[in-house]
From TrEMBL:
<dbReference type="InterPro" id="IPR016084">
    <property type="entry name" value="Haem_Oase-like_multi-hlx"/>
</dbReference>
<comment type="similarity">
    <text>Belongs to the TenA family.</text>
</comment>
<dbReference type="GO" id="GO:0050334">
    <property type="term" value="F:thiaminase activity"/>
</dbReference>
<dbReference type="InterPro" id="IPR027574">
    <property type="entry name" value="Thiaminase_II"/>
</dbReference>
<dbReference type="Pfam" id="PF03070">
    <property type="entry name" value="TENA_THI-4"/>
</dbReference>
<keyword id="KW-0784">Thiamine biosynthesis</keyword>
<dbReference type="InterPro" id="IPR004305">
    <property type="entry name" value="Thiaminase-2/PQQC"/>
</dbReference>
<keyword id="KW-0378">Hydrolase</keyword>
<protein>
    <recommendedName>
        <fullName>Aminopyrimidine aminohydrolase</fullName>
        <ecNumber>3.5.99.2</ecNumber>
    </recommendedName>
</protein>
<feature type="domain" description="Thiaminase-2/PQQC">
    <location>
        <begin position="11"/>
        <end position="216"/>
    </location>
</feature>
<dbReference type="InterPro" id="IPR050967">
    <property type="entry name" value="Thiamine_Salvage_TenA"/>
</dbReference>
<dbReference type="GO" id="GO:0005829">
    <property type="term" value="C:cytosol"/>
</dbReference>
<comment type="subunit">
    <text>Homotetramer.</text>
</comment>
<comment type="function">
    <text>Catalyzes an amino-pyrimidine hydrolysis reaction at the C5' of the pyrimidine moiety of thiamine compounds, a reaction that is part of a thiamine salvage pathway.</text>
</comment>
<dbReference type="GO" id="GO:0009228">
    <property type="term" value="P:thiamine biosynthetic process"/>
</dbReference>
<comment type="pathway">
    <text>Cofactor biosynthesis; thiamine diphosphate biosynthesis.</text>
</comment>
């Protein structure tokens, strides 16, 4: 029988495909992204990852075993100390310093995505949270793997480090999250599983929108002076 997360992945196939074909992801493959697009992505992703760590913190507050606390704790360290590498890759190509990219307000789609995960985290249980977080590592590790297979980049490719960072993760965080979620899902009712699926699909759609936001340099519709900005 198919596991719960295999079922999720299969239903999300059209969204994964749209992400692989998105012009920002194709721009990583072709090394053709413009400086402003890389800058917008890093500014937004820096704040996205801050929100992600806070959500892991909320998840820790709902854990009943030390193993799951340890997992979330390791993932916070991973974001703090390792997930800076792909950002640095984008900054180097854009010719900007990473420090300058930090502290910006979230654009509409990034705001939507982080608030979706935060709402699920505050209102839901550990399994709700895991369903909403899983598309994040799952889409990135698949993008990385596909790009490595397709491009077989050498070290002169501008996004060599980015592709290897996500493409070499193998089973890693995605596998660990899937095993936890599949274990918990075994004792859930069909109605609860349906709810988890909704969280998962919303996050997949929002992954697509995040790439689109970066590609189109999405901003709030009315330009405001510093201090009045939302996000
Ligand atoms: C919009 C967006 N989605 C996914 C990732 C990738 N990512 C973020 S956290 C994490 C795992 C940490 O446990 C991974 C793989 C990103 N950087 N930005």
């Amino acid at each position: 029988m198919r596991s719960f997360t295999e079922e999720l992945r299969s239903e999300a196939e059209p969204i994964f495909k749209a992400i692989f074909d998105h012009p920002f992801v194709r721009g990583i493959a072709e090394g053709s992204l413009r400086k402003e697009q890389l800058v917008h992505y890093v500014k937004q992703d820096f704040e996205y990852l801050n929100a992600f760590m806070r959500i892991y913190g909320i998840a820790i507050s709902k854990c009943e075993s030390r193993e799951t606390i340890e997992f979330f704790n390791e993932q916070i360290s991973f974001i703090l100390h390792s997930e800076t590498h792909p950002h640095n890759n984008f900054c180097q190509v854009a010719g900007v310093s990473y420090e300058e990219m930090q502290g910006y307000p979230l654009a509409p789609s990034a705001s939507h995505y982080t608030r979706h995960m935060l709402a699920v985290a505050h209102e839901g249980t550990l399994e709700d949270i895991m369903a909403a977080l899983l598309p994040c590592p799952w889409t990135y590790t698949e993008i990385g793997k596909r790009l490595l297979e397709e491009i077989q980049p050498d070290a002169s490719h501008p996004f060599y480090d980015w592709m290897h960072f996500y493409g070499d993760m193998e089973d890693g965080v995605t596998g660990q999250m899937r095993r936890l979620l599949d274990g918990w899902a075994e004792s859930l009712s069909p109605a609860r599983k349906k709810r988890l699926k909704e969280h998962f699909m919303a996050s997949c759609q929002l992954e697509y929108l995040f790439w689109d936001m970066a590609y189109r340099l999405e901003e709030w519709p009315v330009n405001m002076t510093e201090g009045e900005k939302v996000g």
